[in-house]
Amino acid sequence: MPQYEGQCHCGQIAWTAEIPEERHVLCHCTACKLMGGGEFTLNQIIPKKNFNLTKGDLKVYSYKGDSGNSVDCYMCPNCASSPYHHQQIMGPDTIVIRTGLLKGNQKWGQPAAEIYDKYRDSWLPQTAENSFPLGPPS
Ligand SMILES: [Zn+2]
Ligand SMILES: [Zn+2]
């Protein structure tokens, strides 16, 4: 399985991740926009065991997802780059990794899907093969 390296902006944390499906899923939800400062984030669902923190410690920020379950966002305590988040509704063994922070992802090409597409800004065209108005329950 392909392994990728990631690093936060300040360099205090670093990680590796094995990615089963080398495709981005764009998320246009409000939380992604507020935390990322952009119109969407780049994601993929992977087994938690595929993520390996190789440097530093992560801080956790949690909020309630649509289902009422916690969404735990793991980030660098210094610069707030976030390698992944854990939606508790998905169970303990699955995380959502931010594929945009993985080195070498440029070769992946066209995204696989866009979720929360009903919140996509009107000036931004759909770029993925598939589009879903909402996402899996968070
Ligand atoms: Zn950092
Ligand atoms: Zn989102």
TrEMBL record:
One Pfam entry for this protein is: GFA
What is this protein's name?
A: CENP-V/GFA domain-containing protein
Q: Which UniProt keywords apply?
A: Lyase, Metal-binding, Zinc
| PROSITE patterns, alphabetized | CENP_V_GFA (PS51891)
Organism whose genome encodes this protein: Exophiala sideris
Family membership, please give it.
Belongs to the Gfa family.
Record carries keyword Lyase: yes
Keyword Metal-binding tagged: yes
Where is the CENP-V/GFA domain positioned along the sequence? Answer: 4-117
